[in-house]
Amino acid sequence: MALLRPAAEPPPAPLSRYWKAYVTDCTEQVTRFHRITAVVGATQVRTWLGEIGKRLDAELEAVHRLAAVGDSIEPARFRITEPPAKRIASRLSKAKVSLKQSVDQAAEIAEQAVLDPTHDDVRVHLDVLNEQVGRLAIAAPLAEEPEPGPRRRRWRRPAS
User: How many domains does the chain have?
Assistant: First the structure.
């Protein structure tokens, strides 16, 4: 008699176009960060950037999870209307901008590492990047936004 193995969990459903765009943009930024880290010649700088890259990887996982939640609330192709989905989209948008800023900062660090072998200027940039990554949009709590009031119905006068 053959032993039955428990069925593996099915793969997650693909994200709708709207949410997949956020995940794709964020994934591209983190990939760029790792590409920049790989070409930095200075070992100490590469180590620091590698540690920051690990935090960005964790941030990217959070982006995936949030996009999946947003997609489960409101799958969409072009726009969303549900308030919880809008809050998630706002958070993902801020994460995308923060990741782009991190990549720009990493590029500046890589440039400085090439131009200044003593790494004096690089330390300042690394401190800025480290601080910036510490307060990315996914991990940080979202500022309280006022909830929109209930939609008001327009009353029209009957035509006379």
Answer: 1
152's tokens = 């008001």
Kind and range of the H or E run holding 108: helix 83-115
Q: Where are the alpha helices (DSSP H) in 12-157?
A: 17-39, 43-73, 83-115, 120-134
* Residue 4 located in a structural domain: no
Predicted confidence (pLDDT) at residue 98 exceeds the cutoff of 50 = yes
For 129-157, write each residue's pLDDT tens digit: 777 766 665 655 545 555 555 555 556 66
| Residue 140 domain flag | no
Whether residue 53 contacts residue 8, with contact meaning beta carbons closer than 8 Å, is answered with no
Is residue 157 in some structural domain? no
Could you tell me if residue 142 is inside a domain?
no
